Amino acid sequence: MNAVCKRDILIGIVGGKGRMGNWFFRFLTDAGYQVLVSDMGTELSSEDLARRCHVVIVSVPMEAFSSVIGRIGPLMPKDAFLTDLCSLKAVQVQEMLQNTVCSVAGSHPLFGPAEDSINGRRVALCPGRGNEWFEWWRSLLESRGACVHCTDAASHDRAMAWVQALNHFILISLGKAVFDQGLDMEELVFLSTPSFSKQMEIVARLFYQDPQLYATIQMANPFAANVLHNFLGVCDKLHEAVLRTDRDAFVELFRSAQAAGKTYMDTVGKQTL
To answer: What string of DSSP letters covers 92-151?
Structure first.
């Protein structure tokens, strides 16, 4: 990489016609890089990108990831860099390492393709192999305003069990419960508090999402089952407290939630100082 200047770095995006792949195509071309794309129906194949590009970004569904890496990984030269945009990292980073001799890192944009800019958005990076390309990638993201957090792949997936799997579980459950009751939606909207409105606005965004992707996020994360089990245990305790009109038990649970919220916001405050 030392001998390669910015204008000579050729970047390839496998799955570049998808929503997130296309988002990074625009991001990288706006940053001044030459970007090639492979996808269904493109003239270039993923194998072409692996052979030709200094950097290859894999933006494919997690179900297709292993097959793609198995095909392109062995074709990438040692001085190249391979990264991905999957929502999980432990298996993905390991498969990239096993199928390549080049530099490797896992990347997870913690935002969706509807965002206009990366400025202020979070991106998780999980080191795999090599430091020079990793630092180039991190510097590029940060130079455009991204908030980059570096972590190991297992820690990333453990956090995603809460941030994604549990969060989606709650949203899907809320939406399904509202739908099943056949509520008068005009009445519900009129009587909504700001808090409930915000929650339902997030539920409404599910309309634009791929349910297969959300199913994978729930079922492919090895930490998700335990998180959901613990969450449902708390739900049971809260339900029982309400059914028994046990105010003391309810208040104890509420105060635990308050403590968690305060700790979270205190941490947010420290990170923004």
So the answer is: HHHHHHHT-SSEEEEEEESS-TT-S--TT-EEEEEEEE-SHHHHHHHHHHHHTT-EEEE-
Rounded alpha-carbon distances, angstroms, from residue 46 to 17, 37, 52, 53 = 12, 8, 10, 10
End-to-end Cα spacing for the chain = 35
Class of domain 6-151: alpha beta
pLDDT per residue as tens digits for the range 32-61: 999 999 999 999 999 999 999 999 999 999
The string over 33-65, giving b where at least 16 C-beta atoms fall within 10 Å of a residue's C-beta and e elsewhere, is: bebbbbbeeeebebebbbeebbbbbbbbebeeb
Domain ranges of the chain: 6-151, 155-271
Task: Return the closest-CA partner of residue 160 out of 147, 148, 151.
Answer: 151
For the entire predicted model, the pTM comes to 0.91
